[in-house]
Each structure stands twice: as structure tokens, then as C-alpha cells.
Amino acid sequence: MGRKPCSGAEGATAPVNSQAQGTGSGGGLWRVAHTRARRRDNDLRRLQTQWGAQQGQRGHFTDGIGLSAKCRGFSGVINGGYMAELARTELYDLHVELGGKMVPFAGYEMPVQFPMGVLKEHLHTRQSAGLFDVGHMGQVLLHPKTDMDALIAGFEAMMPVAVAGVANGRQRYGLFTNDTGGIIDDLMFANRGDNLFVVVNAGCKAGDIAHMTKHLADVATVTPVTDRALLALQGPGAEDAISGMIHGVMAMRFMDVITAHSVFGELWISRSGYTGEDGFEISVPNTGAVGLAKALLAHPSVAPIGLGARDSLRLEAGLCLYGHDMDETITPVEANLAWAMQKSRRTGGDRAGGFPGAATILNQLENGPSKLRVGLLPDGRAPMREGVDLFDTATGGTPIGRVTSGGFGPTIDAPIAMGFVPPALAENGTQLWGEVRGKRLPVTVAPLPFRPSTFKR
Amino acid sequence: MMKYTEDHEWLRVEGDLVVVGITEHAATQLGDVVFVELPEPETVVATGDEVVVIESVKAASDILAPVDGEIVEVNEKLNDTPGLVNDDATGDAWFFKMKLDDLSVLDAFMSEDEYNDFIG
Q1: Which of A31, A102, A150, B47 is most exposed, with the fewest beta carbons within 10 Å of its own?
Q2: Interface contact B68, partner A, CB < 8 A
Q3: Lowest mean pLDDT among A16-30, A209-223, A339-353, B75-89
């Protein structure tokens, strides 16, 4: 297929964008499911004939599982698409060995699911522990050219987030913004004392690296980390599974980072993740990645989890997916991420403004945005997927908003979604309608997250 | 006797009716089914009409009418237990029963052996 490559996003997962979807009638789940060429197989063609015909209502997973997203255009070129060669993470062979169904995602071949299946993998993570390969994401080190204070100030000038004040050994959620206040990418950054360690979305990483290199030219050396894999261990059983083999993790609280020495090499561990569960993200030298993954999987509570469950887990946790719930046209205020913008960077704060798009973002904080991301609970059983138009009347009228992420929440055992609506319709309990296959189905604005997080604070 | 379409449906003759479902192969590829939207009974359909929507954790898919005829009964059990499609694709998880003018149109579809060959 000659579809234009698009890039994946974090959370580590990202559904299809309209562009990919529009040309994706033969793609996706079915296509990728048939990894070996079959003589006459039509890739279950008719069963999925409609994919792509109505954006968002069909084929959420089409693009290599529906997980691809738009970052800036050029990042996709660099990361490659279907026609380009796909990259593999250090764990590729292990995924195949474990029965992972490999699909293209953000320029990588990644497991969308393992034999357990998306639903059970999701529930297993909530009840026990799941191991995720997030090695496709971008790991970047920022070393100061002169001193850390200058680096911190420079990095802070790239986003509406307080970087100063993040203590050595702590991590924070960040957002690169553009001059109109739109979100270039979301990321995690950690203060490791003499450097900052940044993790960005897979599909955006080339663009992010260029962006950082440009903006931090005077204060930092930007080094993409290419000799390390990244694993996430998530769920209530995560601490028990990892603490037996890695010293020092028991004492960690949510968003702490440590450097730990192990037989797998030097590990950079954060107590965080993107599932709403307690857990860890572990940067491990490539040479130790398979060993660490196997050691964790040997624990009875740990199972390998694919991108499919990662997407439903982050959706239940009310977390945004880049390229879907946020992009360059959506500001942090609109994306309901005002919590990520500390007081010090807001009007009246001691380091207010001074980031790209500050005029727009600060104005929206004061006067309100014109649209707002909300949680949506369909009243019935039919999922409302990305692209479903939202209305404030059961018949007639024009769309007042749109679903940006939607599917089934296995823990909640019901369909769940997120989307953008005008603030006047954003109150919890507001009755709206989503148009699914030409029918207006009732949906109620609901608080996020759908499932409370269980971070160890 | 079961017949199979290239769209991974199975067709089973029951008296003068044809029962329609999807194959285990299709169910496996779909993944966990979480919602099934069934047609109204007594609907007259033509080959290729969308008659059933299946939503899995991954995506929405359609089942199209494999032949011309009238849908006379639908499997209401799938409303409450869509997961039956994964558990018993060729048994309890039938979708609808159709009345055909002429059952001989089924001759054109694949046998089980031919279908197994088809999916490789």
C-alpha cells in the first residue's frame, strides 16, 4: 500500500489517523494478521470492506492496529512507513517467540497482541502485571554545555511546564508547544543530576530531536540514546516482580527515577507508566534487554502485553494519545492538560510565560478555551470510536464535537471514549449523541479517568 | 453440511433455512468481540447488503448477506454475550437464519476442505 507514512505516538499507542485510514481499506488487522503470503487469501476482504469508508466508525485498528498517529510530517519520512523497511526493537525475536502478532507501528514492527488476546492482556495488567516493549519510543539525553541551570532554563523555555524545581531523581510530564499553542509532542523528562533524560513518542522522535537540538543549541548537547531498550512493567504485581531482582525499587514513589546496577547492565528506572497502574519504566542496555525481559516474564505474575491492550489501558486511565487526543492544533488547555502546567508558568507565576504559544495558552487559562477534552460514556454497548461526530440533539443539528479516542474498556466492561466538545457541554452528566453508522446513540459526558489510577505516591 | 464463503462466513442448511455465522479463523483474527448489532427479522436482503456489525476490541467489521433472501431469525443471545463469537464461532454464535428461494445457490460456495485450503 502506498499510504503515506505516518508516525506513531505515545502513550505508546496510537490509533489511525484519517489519512492512513482513508486509504486503508485493505490494511490493518486483517492484513497484518496474515504475515505469511497466502495463495488465495483475500485477507478477509469483505468482512472489512467498509473500513475507511466512514472515518472513525470502522477500522480503529486498521493501520497496523490502528495505532499510528500524526506528528510532524517529516518524522514519518524518517521513521518510514509501509513501503519503507520497518525497524525492530531489541525484543523483536522474543516477541515472535512468545507468539506476538507483529504489526507496523510508528516505523517499527511491534506486537499488537500475544496469544492471550487484547481483552485478557488488559485485565491481566490490571490484576497482576504486564510487560510492555516501549523500545520504539525515543530516549534522549540532554547534557549541559555549561551548567545544569542553563539547561533547565532552556528546556523550560520550550514548554508551559516547570522544569526548574524538578529535583534530582524526579521525573515530570512535559509538553512541547508551538507558536500557536498547539502540542508538538508530550514527553517525560527526568532530572538525573548532571543531565536530563527525556522520553518522547516514537513517531515524533526525529522531529523532537531536531526541535531540541535547535532550541537548546546554546545550552545542551542533545544525544539520542540508541544503545538502550525501554521496557514498561505495569500493574499491582509490578513491584513484587521487579524488586526481587533489582535493588532499590521498593523505596521509589510515583515519578521517582533511579540508576540501578544489575546483571543486565546499568538500568535507568522510573516509577511511572501510561496505564494508570503503579509500575516502572526501565531503560536497559540493548545487550541486557532480552535477559531482563525474560527474567521479568519468568515471574508468575508477569505476562507480555501488546499495543492493543496498551491502548485500552491508557484510554481507561483517561490519558491522551498523541496524534489523536492532542496534536499541533490542540492546546494543552483544550486537551484538559492544564494540570501539567504549574502555577509558576501561568499568569502571576514567578516564571510566567516565555514558552511557545504562551499568549494563546495563558489567555485560554484565564478566559477558557473554545473546546475541551472530556470523557464520554456511551449509554449502550456499541463502541464510539475515533471520528464519531457528537451532537447535542437526538436529531438534526450540526456536530458540536468529535470523538478522538474510543473503544471498549475491559475493566469497566463497557464502551468508553474521549472527545472534544464546547465548554458549555463539558459538564459531567451532559447528555450528548454520537452518530454511529448513521444512528444517533446517546452518550454521557463523564469524569476522567474512567478507572482510578493506582500510583504509589 | 457446511458451506463457506470467501468472506469467512459459514452457511449451514437447516430444513429450508440457511444459518449464517463466521468461521473460527475469522473470529480469531477479529479478536475479542464486544458488541454485535443484529438486523431486524423479516428483513429482505440482497447479496452484499450489510446485515451485521461486529465490534471487537480492535475494530468494527461487517457481515454482508452472502446470498439474496429474507432474514427470518436472529441470534438474540449475541446482544448480551457477544463473546460467544470467540467461544463458539461455528455453534452457538450463529448470527441469523435466512430463507432462500432456491437453496441450490449454495452449491457455488466452498466445502470445508476447500475453505481450509483457502485460508492456508
Answers
A1: B47
A2: no
A3: A16-30
